[in-house]
Amino acid sequence: MFKNKVFENIFSLGVSQIVNMAFPFVTMPYVSRIIGPEGYGILNYSTAFIGFFTMFVLYSFDLSGTKIISRNLHDKEFVSKAFSEVIYSRCILYVISIILFMISLLFGKVLHKDYVVSIILFLGLISSVFSPQFIYQSFQDLKIFSRITLIRGFINMILIFIFVRIKQDYFYIPLFTTIFNITINVGLLIYAKRKYSLKLIRQPLNKLFTLILNDRFIFISNVIGAFRTTTNTIILGFFISTKEIGYFTTSINFLFVVISIFFIPISTAIYPFVSNAFSKSTETGNDIVKKIVPIIIYFYFFTSLGLLVFSPFLITLIFGNKFDESIKILQIISFVPLTMGLCNLLGVQILLNHNFDKLYFRINLFCNIIGLILNLFLSKHFGYYGAAWNLIFVDILIIILCFYFLKVLKVNIIKWSYFKPKIIKLNLISIMKSKEFN
Asked: Which parts of the chain span the membrane according to its record (predicted)?
């Protein structure tokens, strides 16, 4: 059906994300009415906290690993070496995570609200060690994810309806997630080894630590970028009730559904394509980016507009009248798909492919420090509304600074004539016919 790898991967990831979210949409009305806002608050708080450990173990390898491997696909020895470095480096990071998590359990009073959920989610972190996404992404071969997700989603849905019967049963939700994540990632890793003839080659410790050190700027940028969502939830926990956290995280999670369907497949699929274009020459990469910018802006603008308009209907339909407060929050953050799309385009697709890793890091660090300080004030005085507005503010600040520094560096990514619908169509056809796209 699809002749182009990038579109094929966008379609496969899109289907995967839709399926991944479709089953929760079926279970959400059932689960939300059983566990209520407080149960959601506890579950989402623990998920947000463990999310920091997940980022630590995944590090920046889905970006740096993909960029390196996608530019050396024909060198099997090099690919196996890069693959081994990523896996062994994640093992080191996992051991460090165990120590940090144990300290958190001992001294983190908030986690004591339900430490069982936190422990279950942390055990699932082993799946991040063996996550093979960077391999499939490098080879632009992501079709298998949609098939696996369909099977997983169906089984998970059945198990939730069977086991989640009373309010106290909410711990089954993270338990099923942990079991499926470990099983799937280990299976996909074994399959990738066979399909791409990969070898797990033992690597010296000093080399692994060097790799971790060299990727620190991208990693730290990703971590502080996550402050836009997870840190907001953590900070809110100090100022509002668990029930109110439930309202906020319900809106955030619904937004994540939209992002998972419309943002993640596109950004994931085009990254190796853009990276490959830049490997040919800077001019080739910049030309591709100029053609992509209008497509991204138009697409995410209408996605965000639709989210703004249909927020009341969607929240009420899925979660029920108890979550009416979540509607206003979702409307505030409805344009995050657009701002996040621009942040990804300017930062990941452009700055990183121009090897401006340090600049990307500094922009994210500065903006998120400002956002963190502002979030403390807004959350304390305006609750979840303040935290919601803070998400938008940080994204806009990042976009402004990225545009400014790209202009200073004389990297022109805007060609206004490309914004005409007719030209967009022609550019899209030319991209599809390019060698790197197929």
From this structure: 12-30, 42-61, 91-109, 115-136, 148-166, 172-192, 217-240, 252-274, 295-320, 332-352, 359-378, 384-406
How far is Cα of residue 2 from the mean position of the Cα atoms in its chain?
25
Q: From 409, 371, 362, 401, select the one nearest 218 (Cα to Cα).
A: 362
Q: How far apart are CA 311 and CA 328, in angstroms?
A: 8
CB 176 within 8 A of CB 160: yes
Neighbour-count burial of 241, counting CB atoms closer than 10 A to its CB (0-12 exposed, 13-18 middle, 19+ buried): middle
Q: In a 10 Å sphere around its CB, with 0-12 CB exposed, 13-18 middle and 19+ buried, how is residue 154 labelled?
A: middle
- According to the model, what pLDDT value does residue 397 have? 93
Cβ-contact 167, 112 below 8 angstroms: no
410 by Cβ neighbours in 10 Å (0-12 / 13-18 / 19+) ranks as exposed
Q: What are phi and psi of 437, to 5 degrees?
A: -80, -20
Largest CA distance in the chain: 61
Is the pLDDT confidence value at 311 over 90? Answer: no
Q: Give pLDDT tens digits for 120-178.
A: 888 988 999 998 888 887 887 777 776 777 777 788 788 888 887 877 777 788 888 88
Distance CA 80, CA 141 (A): 17
pLDDT > 60? residue 2: no
Domain locations in the chain as residue ranges: 12-214, 216-438
Rounded mean pLDDT, 409-427: 85
Sign of CA dihedral 320, 326, 328, 330: negative
Structure tokens at 104: 């958190």
Cα separation, 140 vs 134, in Å, equals 10
- What does the alpha-carbon distance between residue 75 and residue 82 come to, in Å, rounded to a whole number? 11
Reference 243, options 320, 326, 306; nearest CA is 326
The amino acid that residue 243 corresponds to is: K
- The region, left, alpha or beta by phi > 0 then psi within -120 to 50, assigned to residue 24 is alpha
Q: How many Å apart are CA 165 and CA 329, to the nearest integer?
A: 29
Q: Helices (DSSP H) in 263-356: which residue ranges?
A: 264-280, 282-319, 325-332, 336-344
Burial class (CB in 10 A: 0-12, 13-18, 19+), 1: exposed
